[in-house]
Protein 1
Amino acid sequence: MRKFFTVVIGLLCVTFLGAQVVPNGGFESWIEIDPDDWRTNNQTPYTFVSRSDDSHSGDYAAFGQAQYVDSSHLEKNVGPELTSGAPVMGVIVDENYNELTFYLKFDPGVNDTLLVSVRLTDDNYAALGIGEMKFHEAEAEYTLQTIPITYETAGTATNAYIQFEIVNNLTGINTGLDSWF
């Protein structure tokens, strides 16, 4: 197994180590308010994930920040969500990687957590390998992080799903407005 890929979040940049590259891993290309090849929870008039000039490398990065949502069916603070793959979720892979590495710049605000997860699946979308890490402490400068991927099922991965989201570490919902990655 090889190292999975490098992700720079916090403002975010993603690339595979080796021959494979995560599409738009450096967040250099955007379609309106979303990064190409990534899904967000952006929904007019709310922009939770946006393009930033504060990048670890390249010209741009993804920046996510919680916002207050006031609508007829929802009234609460909502954290940003960023998931690999668009229009179809996930990234095509052809081997079982053993870790996800990324650079993180993050401020959890009060009682918030950045949840980063990676799931590798087979052709039938059955989970083969899973990794997850929760970040509670602020990272004022880009810091290299590593998430090990554990395999409990045999097979060769064909899809990878990477997700970044800010959640309230007490309730899982209603994040603080001062949280960002």
Protein 2
Amino acid sequence: MKTTIKTAAALLVAIAFIATAVPLSDSGSSDAATDTAFTFTDDNGKTFTFDGPVDHLVVFGYGACVTVAETGNLSKIIGADKYSQYDYYKDTRLQNMKAYDLGSPYANDFSEVVKWLVQQVENGSFDKTKDAVIMTSSTNLNTYLLPALEEKGFANIIYWKSTSENYSDLVACVGSISQL
């Protein structure tokens, strides 16, 4: 019984955090993005500052994709790993996602992902200085893909461990994703 109460309380805190972190409507200002600047630090200790929500996301990690979907921003995702695609889990929250399938986040060779993402920059579908790549679920992403993207000039490569060490780490991860 105590575990159920604690779980319910933790869920309510997370929902309340997301609800307060995500702007629900435009304040009427034509320059609303300048009013929503935010900063956070990922699990690699890298600090990111954004002037406001990004236009496009590339997401590795089913939970991260669902978080983006739950904040009403599914259309921002242009690429996601195979486990985040609707066909894998049949999660209806991801059913309308129109994201390129980036394959497994557990690979050691991400050269095709890098090539695809560079093409998205070249065709104007992704801004490597303003948009973001979210990585969760695999240390291989941090070891192999992150440095390859940094080498190509991608600025906002956000890494969150697949297993949080404590509840505040999970809240920080969800909070950062919900702002993007």
Protein 3
Amino acid sequence: MNIDQEYNKILHQLKAGGRPNIKLSKSDFSQLLSLWPKPVQYNQKKEVFLKILCILENTQNFAPQFLNPIIEVLENSKDKELVIHTLGISQKHILSCFQMKGERVPISFIKSIGHALGSSEPEVIEWGLRVLEQSGSAGILLKEDVRSLNIPFFKRWNSKWKIVSSLKNFILNQWKPLGPR
């Protein structure tokens, strides 16, 4: 697979209003995995990294072999764009994959979402909360992280922080029946 060609094909379909749903083979996934940068290379290889994430966001099939690399990004990257896209692919390649197999979402993945919740960027926190909400009851492991999210006073009227606040309250209300406050 030529990553640049696949990426450009996806962008072309998206710009045309389409929804690219590409099907990758095991060897395609292996190739993407081999190109996945190590934490110290995230910034140096950001352009290629974003192409890999874009391709993974638009696949039909699951790739659970990306579990550990996804966790690495969530735990080590401070780059807003990389973290948001990584959280996006985790919805398909981790959450949906494990749920379809009837397996519990790995605790290590749930814990890695906590790093996104510690961000100062409202979009990163929003994506972290959205993924956490989709993780089901396992997400309660981060109950204290969610509860301790503080919206800066002067930013409470900002639309992005309002979304974070709404998601926080929604998730906490979902967990009420699951245990004591």
